[in-house]
Amino acid sequence: MRSVETVKRTIQVKIKQVYGNKTVYPVSDNGRLILLLTGTSTFTPTHISTLKTLGYTFQVQADTL
Question: What are the tens digits of pLDDT across the range 9-18?
Fold first, then answer.
């Protein structure tokens, strides 16, 4: 069983192609809350790098039909 600390530091995301560019959208509530602070709707490479430095991990949600 995962600890509460690990669960809170995991951000679930979905990657979409928008006009040929990969964009990273939050799926989990904690990801959405973090983006509220940045004023954006997607994670940038800088956001991801900084959050990884702070101990966050990203879990990519698989596409479903």
Answer: 999 999 999 8
Contact predicate 27/13, CB 8 Å: yes
> Of the candidates 60, 63, 61, 18, which has an alpha carbon nearest to the alpha carbon of residue 41?
18
Q: Where are the domains of the chain?
A: 4-59
DSSP state of 27: -
In eight-state DSSP terms, residue 41 is S
Indicate the length of the chain as a whole number. 65
- Furthest-apart CA pair in the chain: how many Å? 40
Whole-number pLDDT of residue 7: 53
